[in-house]
Each structure stands twice: as C-alpha cells, then as structure tokens.
Amino acid sequence: MTTTTPVLQVRDLRVEIGERTVLQSVSLDVQPGSLIVLMGANGSGKSTLGMALAGHPSYHVTAGQALLNGKDLVQLPAHERARAGFFLSFQSPPDIPGVKNNLFIRTALNAVRESRGETPLDAFDFLNSAKQGAKGLGMPAAMLGRPVNEGFSGGERKRNELLQLTLLQPRVALLDEIDSGLDVDGVRAVVELVQRMRAQGTAFIVVSHYLQMIESLQPDQVLRLDQGRIAESGDLALARSIAETGFARANA
C-alpha cells in the first residue's frame, strides 16, 4: 500500500471516565484504505478509544489530539465528528424506541451528504438504496420499518450497524467487536463489506479477538493495548501469537 498522509492521526490521547484514567497515552496513524486490528485484554481501553473519538460525553479527553483530515475531533461535538467522516459501530448497539430505522438512517445520511455538498435523498431513493444494502447483508427489508434495534437479536443489531456503515460511507470506521453475535454468514458479510469499502478508500480500526476473521480481513497492522497504552505493534503473527498464548504471555 502506498504511504500517503494519514486520514486519522491520534497523538498522545489521554482519556478519563469519571476519576479513572483509562487511556494513558495512545498514538497511531491510520492511512486511507488501511485496516488496523486492535487487541487487548478486558479493560485495556479498546472501547474507550472508540467512544472518545466518537465524542461520547462520559469519556473525557484530558490530553492529546485526534486529527481527521486535519480537523481536530476533540474540539467537535459528536454529530460534527460523524459529519466529518468518523463512524463507530458499538459493541452493544442500543435500541431507540419510537424512532423508525429508515427515518433514523436517512436523517443521518442526509446530514452527512449535506456536509459533503451533496443533495439530500428523498424517501423513495433512500429506501431503494437501503433495501439493496440490507439484501447484501442478509437483513430483511422489513427491519427498516421497525424502531431502531427494538426487539432485534444481537446479530440483527450488528447487521443494522453494518447497514449504516455501508450507506454513510465514512472516512474512518471503528468496528468494536462487530463479529459478536454474528453467525458464519454474518462474519463473511463483514469481511466482504470491509474489503469493498477499503478499496473505495475507507479506513478501518477493528476491535476483535476472532482470529479467523482477523486473518480474512488481512490487516495492515495489529496493535495490542495494555493498561491504556499500545504495548505491541506487529502484523498477523502478533494476532496469531495472542490467539495461541493469550495476553498473559506479555507479562510472563
């Protein structure tokens, strides 16, 4: 892959939740179309990184910087980070009772399109695109008319996240254990979607410990977080070593 200016540059990011510092100092560069796999024991800060970059109000950045195409995400409200091209797939996607799935996604998509200087999609054109996207993910079109994630299984919630991803076309997507709750076909759909979007320039940070999926994703880099810092950097060999011996090997 040709080295270019990173689409996302994170420098010495320090994040607190309440009075507890979870991320001590994290730095990384994400190139357009690249894929980084993030691994680490429970509590090491993987989900915290995603929440902090997305602008969750409970995650306070106390030091450092995160530049997305030159814009400092830390200085932007959450909705502006999404409009700038950052996407977070939640580890446990919440339900939003009373809000129709198709209205929710179309509103988000049109906000992003507006920020890009594109014309908004009307309900008809959006529904055609959404149905095509849902079909490719093995997601029944009827789910578009239901409240967001209400009554959805774990796998259905993850597919709904993937539908948002494919329609929003972000610059950088952080997928937090996207394989959790998915069956074999669902994991295959993840790999195919990520490969297709990488070819179009979207960069990915994928939190996962599922070695088979990691190998299928063919990451450019594998990072191990430990106690709020990047403790190791490598390639697939690092992921295979962690899968074989666990995280305790680093402290042995």
UniProtKB/TrEMBL annotation:
Q: Which SUPFAM superfamilies match?
A: P-loop containing nucleoside triphosphate hydrolases (SSF52540)
InterPro entries referenced in this protein's UniProt entry, alphabetically: AAA+_ATPase, ABC_transporter-like_ATP-bd, ABC_transporter-like_CS, FeS-cluster_ATPase_SufC, P-loop_NTPase
What are the UniProt keywords, alphabetically? ATP-binding, Cell membrane, Membrane, Nucleotide-binding
Q: Which Pfam families match?
A: ABC_tran (PF00005)
Q: Domain ABC transporter: where?
A: 8-252
Quote the Gene3D superfamilies the UniProt record gives: P-loop containing nucleotide triphosphate hydrolases
Family stated for the protein in its record: Belongs to the ABC transporter superfamily. Ycf16 family.
PANTHER family (alphabetical) = ABC TRANSPORTER I FAMILY MEMBER 6, CHLOROPLASTIC
Q: What is the protein's given name?
A: Fe-S cluster assembly ATPase SufC
| Naturally occurring in which organism (per UniProt) | Comamonas nitrativorans
List the gene name: sufC
